User: Fold Ca2+:H+ antiporter from Paractinoplanes abujensis.
Amino acid sequence: MAASIRSYLTQWTVFVPIVAIVALVFTWGRDLPSAVVVVAALLLGGAVLAAVHHAEVVAHRVGEPFGSLVLAVAVTVIEVALIVTLMISGGEKAQSLARDTVFAAVMITCNGLLGISLLVGALRRHVSVFNAEGTGGAFATVATLATLCLVLPSFTTSRTGPQFSPAQLTFAAVASLCLYGLFVTVQTRRHRDYFLPITTAGQVIDVEEHLDPPSTRTALVSLATLMVALIAVVGLAKGVSPAIESGVAAIGLPQAVVGVVIALLVLLPETIAAVRAAARDRVQTSLNLAVGSAMASIGLTIPAIAIAMIWLEGPLLLGLGGTQMVLLALTVGVGTLTIVPGRANVLQGGVHLALLAAFLFMAASP
Assistant:
């Protein structure tokens, strides 16, 4: 037993999260000098990469499409924790943080993850092939959730500004949870085969039949280490977030960029996992991660923030501005045309990456 424990501790994917937790204990609630911020940021990156590894181990054990949900839910936990902690300490400037972060997550997943997955898959096989029935239904759910939670608040009249009334926010939160729950049921039970990788001939590939899953003991160790890594990511991100905010302000960028930085950080594990899956000719798995993450970002984050607003003071600004709505509409339109055929080449991947570049540029220069 002792030898087994020592062998686990020699693995960097186990060692780094433990060191990150120790660093979190010594830095929590303190003003950090620049050198400590740099060290904390490096440990934060290591914890994120470790979380990717252990989430993939757990995902391999439970199999697809359940595996794609593991990382999506884990990343959403990070996102919600970061938003809530920053809203508690951010004051008025944090009133739109939830909107900025969730919208950034949608744009990054539906353009960045989706685009790079299609590009990598097409470069490998000339054409990326995926199941349009499953991916199309998931993408339609994302479009519905994004419109309901991020567009409608700009047009309602019950409250001044781009915000819901308490009753409207409750309805949006409940509807988001119901749609996400319905999606999970469809993905894991009623139409599981819609979310499995397929060949160019349209034949479903059950990954579980070709790869030996890790043992139960290994999966449990990875699950425990994943939880440790996620706690470290949340805590260290909170510690370095003041440096991020001050850095954004110092170079004259809008406050919305903070939300973009948070989204880029929390989606790093899924980005790496999606690229790896696409490189292994599992484009469907990559799209499950991309679209599932966008759905989880709205369907789980908005209800969590709605509950948190019971204790948080000030308004919750959810409605998008005109530029953001145009980018969202363009993403939905282009994404629909990309997904419906069930096949995509490098052009579609490039178009989605161009939309991501446009979003990042407009966020920095609105």
The mean pLDDT is 82. The domain at 2-364 is CATH 1.20.1420.30 (A middle domain of Talin 1).
